[in-house]
C-alpha cells in the first residue's frame, strides 16, 4: 500500500508539472501582455512602458520567463493580483480554497451516495416503471442546463418560498456586530466536520476487527453516527456561535443540492449497468439459492462488487465535476475558487487567473489521488498484487 | 456489433443445383451485408425504449430546424429575423405569447420562436462537428496505440490521463475571455481537446481485443500492410463504439456551448444559451413565473436536445455492449 501510494504520488507530481506547463503556455498564447492596458493612456510614454516590461521581466525570452514562473510557483510565489491590487494571489486563493473544498466534498459524497442507492434499486427492477422513471428523471437532470436549473432553484426556494437565504456566503446583517470573522467560524466548522469524519472512519475501520456479530456491528456504526452528529450539534451549541455557523450552513444548502442534482445521474446509471453485470454472476445465484432475503443479496452481495467500476469512473469524472462547481459557484455567488477564476478571467487579471486555474488542476489531481487510494483500499485484488510484488522484490 | 463483418453467409444456393460462381459485383454484396447488419442492430436498438424516445426527439429537432428557412419565406424578415428583427406592433417588449409571436418576444423585440428555430441547426452543427473531430482523432489514436503498442501506446495513454483530469469549462472560460471565440473556434477547440481524452483509452482497449483475433493474423499472412489492417479491419470494428461516444460527446459540447454563451463569453450571435443570456443580462430572470417565455423554451430545448443524444447513446450502448443485452 505504501509503495503504491508513493508511486501514485510521483505520478501526481509529474502530472502537476505538465499541467502547470500547459496552463502557462496557454495563457502565454493569449494576445497582449499586462502593459497593454497602459497603451491608451497618453501620459505614459512608450519608454515608460518598456521600462515596466523590463521590470516585470516580460522582455526576457519565453524560456527564461517560463523557468522564472516554475521556480516562483514551487516556492509559493504566485504574484500579486491586479483586480484586488495589493493582495498576493496566494492570499486570495488560501481564503477561497477551503470554501470550494467543503462545497465540492459535500456535494460529491452526496451525489455518489444517492447514485449508489438509486442505481442498485433500479437495476434490481430492470425494465419496470421505477427503472424508466428514474432513468428519465436522472438523464433530464444530468443534461439539464445547469445555470438555469440553479436559477430556478434559487427563485423557488429562496425568492418564493423563503425557506433558504438567497445567494452569497453569509447574511451580512447577522454578522455586523459578530465578535469573530466568518473565515474563523468557517475554519472551525471544517475542523469539527473533519473530526467527526475521522471518528466515523476509525469506527468503520475498527468495527470488523472487534465486533464479530453482524447485527451488533450495525448497532455500533449507527451509534457512532449518532455520537458524531450529537457531538457536532452540542459542541457548536455550547460555543455560542451556533447561529453564525447555521447561517453559513443554510447558505450552503442550495449550491450543494444543485450540484447533487446535476451529477447523481451519472453515478446512478453507471451503478445500474454495473449491477446488471454482477447480478448474472454465479455467486449471486448461489446467495439466492441459499435462501437469503432479496434485500441482502442485492445490498451485501451484488452491490458491493458493482461499486468498483463506479468508483473508477467517479475518479475520472472529477474534472467535469469541477467545471460544474465553477458554474454553480458563479451562479450562487459562492466565493470559492471557481468564482474567483471566473472573475479573474473576465477582468483580465492574469496572475490570479493563472493561479486559480493551476489550483483548480491541483484540486482535481489531489481528489483523483484520494479516489485512487480509496479504490485500492476497496478492491482487495489491487493491494494483494502490490504486496506480492513487494514481497518478491 | 462485429456481426457485420464476421457473419458473412453467402447467397443461399438452391440445394442440388450446382453452386453458381459469384457474379454480383463486390460492392453489391457489401451493401447487402451492411443493410443486414444495420437491420439486426436496429432490432436490438428498438427494444430500448429510451433510445427510441431520444431518436424521436432528435428527429423532431431536425424537422424544427429545417422548418426555419421555409418559415422565413412566409413572414416579414424585418420583424422575424432572429438577430436583427424588431416588431413595432407588439409593444412593450418583452411581449407575452400572442398570435403574432407564438412564444412572445425577447427584451429587444425579437421573436423567440424564430430564435429557437434559427439556433437549432447551429446547435446541430456545433455538436456534430465537435463530436466528429473528437471521434476521428480518438479513433485514429486509439487504434494506432492499440495496434502498435509500446511507446506510442504509453505516450497517448498518459496524455489521455492528463486530458481526462483537465477542467475544461474553467479553461475554456479563461481562454474565451482573453480571445474572441466564435462558434467554429469553440467547436474545434473542444473537439480537439476531447479527442485526446478518455475516448482514446476506451477505443484502444477495444482495438486491443480485435488485434488478437485470428482474421487479423490471416490478413497479416496474406501480406496486408499495417495501414491496410488498421483501415480495413480494426477501424470498422471499433466504429460502433466510436459512434456511441460521438453521441455522448454531442451532449457535452452542447452543454459547454450553452454554459459559455450564458456567461457571455462566446462570440456568437444567436444560440439557446445566448437567448438565456439576453434575458438574464436584461434582468428578466428575477421573476421566473412572470416572464416564463424568455427562459423556458430555450432551457427546455437545451435540456431536451442534450438528453436526446444521451438517450440515443444509452440505447446504442445496449447494442454495442453485449454484456448489457437481455438474454
Short note summarizing the structure:
The complex is a heterodimer of chains A (393) and B (327). With 393 residues, chain A is mainly α.
Tags for this entry?
heterodimer; A: 393 residues; mainly alpha; 16 helices; disordered C terminus; B: 327 residues; MetI-like fold; elongated
Task: Describe this entry's structure for a reader.
Chain A is mainly alpha-helical and 393 residues long. Chain A is 79% helix and 0% strand. In chain A, α5 (129-142) packs across α10, α6 (146-160) crosses α13 and α11 runs antiparallel to α12 (294-316). Chain A starts with a helix and ends with a helix. The model of chain A is unreliable at 383-393 (pLDDT under 50). With 327 residues, chain B is mostly helical. Chain B has a single domain (48-73, 107-324), classed as MetI-like fold (Orthogonal Bundle), CATH 1.10.3720. Helix content of chain B is 70%, strand content 0%. Chain B has helices at 3-6, 26-47, 49-72, 77-80, 112-148, 150-165, 168-178, 183-195, 198-211, 214-221, 226-262, 272-281, 292-320. Chain B starts with a helix and ends in a 7-residue tail after the last helix. Residues 1-11 of chain B have low confidence and may be disordered. Chains A and B meet through α1, α5, α6, α10 and α13 of A and α6, α7, α11, α12 and α13 of B.
Amino acid at each position: 500500500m505504501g509503495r503504491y501510494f508513493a508511486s501514485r504520488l510521483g505520478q501526481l507530481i509529474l502530472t502537476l508539472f505538465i499541467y502547470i506547463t500547459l496552463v502557462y503556455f496557454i495563457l502565454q498564447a493569449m494576445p497582449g501582455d499586462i502593459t497593454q492596458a497602459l497603451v491608451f493612456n497618453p501620459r505614459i510614454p512608450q519608454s515608460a512602458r518598456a521600462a515596466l516590461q523590463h521590470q516585470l521581466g516580460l522582455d526576457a525570452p519565453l524560456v527564461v520567463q517560463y523557468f522564472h514562473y516554475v521556480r516562483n510557483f514551487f516556492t509559493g510565489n504566485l504574484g500579486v493580483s491586479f483586480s484586488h491590487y495589493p493582495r498576493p494571489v496566494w492570499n486570495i486563493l488560501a481564503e477561497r480554497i477551503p470554501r470550494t473544498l467543503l462545497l465540492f466534498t459535500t456535494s460529491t459524497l452526496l451525489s455518489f451516495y444517492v447514485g449508489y442507492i438509486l442505481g442498485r434499486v433500479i437495476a434490481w427492477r430492470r425494465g419496470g416503471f421505477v427503472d424508466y422513471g428514474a432513468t428519465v428523471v436522472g438523464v433530464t437532470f444530468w443534461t439539464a442546463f445547469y445555470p438555469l436549473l440553479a436559477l430556478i432553484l434559487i427563485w423557488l426556494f429562496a425568492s418564493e418560498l423563503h425557506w433558504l437565504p438567497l445567494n452569497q456566503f453569509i447574511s451580512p446583517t447577522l454578522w455586523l456586530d459578530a465578535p469573530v470573522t466568518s473565515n474563523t467560524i468557517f475554519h472551525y466548522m471544517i475542523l469539527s466536520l473533519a473530526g467527526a469524519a475521522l471518528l466515523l472512519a476509525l469506527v468503520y475501520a475498527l468495527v470488523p476487527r472487534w465486533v464479530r456479530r453482524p447485527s451488533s456491528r450495525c448497532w455500533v456504526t449507527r451509534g457512532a453516527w449518532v455520537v458524531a452528529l450529537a457531538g457536532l450539534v452540542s459542541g457548536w451549541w455550547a460555543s455560542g456561535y451556533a447561529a453564525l455557523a447555521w447561517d453559513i450552513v443554510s447558505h450552503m444548502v442550495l449550491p450543494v443540492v444543485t450540484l447533487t442534482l446535476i451529477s447523481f445521474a451519472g453515478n446512478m446509471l453507471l451503478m445500474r449497468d454495473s449491477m446488471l453485470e454482477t447480478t448474472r454472476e454465479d455467486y449471486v445465484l448461489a446467495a439466492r439459492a441459499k435462501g437469503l432475503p432479496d434485500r441482502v443479496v442485492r445490498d451485501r452481495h451484488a452491490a458491493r462488487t458493482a461499486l468498483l467500476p463506479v468508483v473508477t469512473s467517479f475518479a475520472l469524472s472529477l474534472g467535469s465535476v469541477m467545471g460544474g462547481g465553477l458554474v454553480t459557484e458563479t451562479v450562487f455567488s459562492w466565493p470559492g475558487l471557481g468564482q474567483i477564476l471566473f472573475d479573474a478571467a473576465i477582468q483580465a487579471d492574469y496572475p490570479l487567473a493563472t493561479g486559480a486555474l493551476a489550483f483548480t488542476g491541483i484540486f482535481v489531481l489531489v481528489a483523483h489521488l484520494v479516489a485512487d487510494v480509496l479504490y485500492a483500499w476497496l478492491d482487495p485484488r489491487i493491494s494483494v498484487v502490490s504486496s506480492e510484488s513487494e514481497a518478491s522484490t | 456489433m462485429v456481426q457485420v463483418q464476421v457473419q458473412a453467409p453467402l447467397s443461399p444456393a438452391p440445394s442440388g443445383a450446382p453452386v453458381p460462381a459469384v457474379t454480383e459485383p463486390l460492392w453489391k454484396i457489401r451493401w447487402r451485408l451492411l443493410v443486414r447488419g444495420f437491420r439486426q442492430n436496429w432490432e436490438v436498438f428498438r427494444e430500448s425504449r429510451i433510445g427510441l424516445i431520444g431518436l424521436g426527439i432528435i428527429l423532431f429537432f431536425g424537422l424544427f430546424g429545417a422548418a426555419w428557412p421555409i418559415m422565413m419565406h412566409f413572414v416579414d424578415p424585418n420583424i422575424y429575423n432572429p438577430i436583427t428583427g424588431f416588431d413595432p406592433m407588439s409593444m412593450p417588449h418583452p411581449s407575452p405569447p400572442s398570435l403574432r409571436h407564438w412564444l412572445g418576444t425577447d427584451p429587444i423585440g425579437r421573436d423567440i420562436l424564430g430564435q429557437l428555430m434559427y439556433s437549432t441547426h447551429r446547435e446541430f452543427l456545433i455538436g456534430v462537428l465537435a463530436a466528429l473531430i473528437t471521434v476521428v482523432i480518438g479513433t485514429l489514436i486509439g487504434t494506432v496505440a492499440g495496434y502498435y503498442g509500446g511507446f506510442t501506446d504509453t505516450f497517448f495513454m498518459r496524455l489521455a490521463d492528463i486530458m481526462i483530469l483537465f477542467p475544461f469549462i474553467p479553461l475554456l472560460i479563461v481562454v474565451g475571455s482573453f480571445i474572441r471565440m466564435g462558434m467554429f473556434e469553440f467547436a474545434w477547440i473542444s473537439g480537439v481537446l476531447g479527442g485526446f481524452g478518455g475516448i482514446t483509452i476506451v477505443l484502444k482497449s477495444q482495438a486491443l481485443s480485435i488485434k488478437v483475433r485470428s482474421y487479423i493474423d490471416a490478413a497479416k499472412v496474406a501480406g496486408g500492410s499495417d495501414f491496410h489492417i488498421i483501415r480495413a479491419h480494426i477501424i470498422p470494428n471499433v466504429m460502433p463504439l466510436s459512434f456511441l461516444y460521438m453521441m455522448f460527446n454531442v451532449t457535452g459540447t452542447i452543454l459547454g456551448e450553452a454554459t459559455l454563451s450564458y456567461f457571455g463569453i462566446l462570440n456568437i450571435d444567436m444560440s439557446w444559451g445566448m437567448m438565456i443570456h439576453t434575458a438574464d443580462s436584461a434582468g428578466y430572470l428575477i421573476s421566473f413565473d412572470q416572464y416564463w417565455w424568455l427562459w423556458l423554451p430555450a432551457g427546455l430545448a437545451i435540456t431536451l436536445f442534450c438528453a436526446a443524444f444521451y438517450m440515443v447513446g444509452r440505447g446504442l450502448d445496449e447494442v454495442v455492449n453485449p454484456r448489457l443485452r437481455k438474454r
